[in-house]
Amino acid sequence: EVQLVESGGGLVQAGGSLRLSCAASGFTFDDYVIGWFRQAPGKEREGVSCISSSGGTTYYANSVKGRFTISIDNAKNTVYLQMSSLKPEDTAIYYCSAARKYFPSWNSLLLRLWALDGDGYWGQGTPVTVSS
Questions:
Q1: pLDDT more than 70, % of the chain
Q2: Dist. CA 72–CA 93, nearest whole Å
Q3: Please, how many CA atoms are within 13 Å of residue 93, restricted to the half-sphere of its CB?
Q4: What is the DSSP string of 42-75?
Q5: Above 90 in pLDDT, residue 102?
Q6: Which of 30, 47, 27 is nearest to 38 (CA)?
Q7: Are 64 and 71 in contact, with CB atoms under 8 Å apart?
């Protein structure tokens, strides 16, 4: 059975850090791009970051650039999102997704289209709450 399972969410104070994990089972990340998305209450799902299976290509939304770091451990079939300097506006349910999308580089529009079309495999999400 193909699954993506997120973990690592929780409650943290503003300025704090969390590391989210996205573990895949039933398939490997080879030839996939893996993305992190989030959805806050009353808002549409937005793309946060993505990484190629080789780890050679990454992209960050402007809202998290310099604060979040995405990485991949293919031996563990897991992608991580290290989140630092968290802000209350980072509060959301965070989802990971793996899809076969091939672009030489990523931008906000491509990530938004992925968020809208829901292509690929998706996890159930892990909640992140940042208190002020």
A1: 100
A2: 20
A3: 12
A4: TS--EEEEEEETTS--EEE-TTTTTTEEEEEETT
A5: no
A6: 47
A7: no
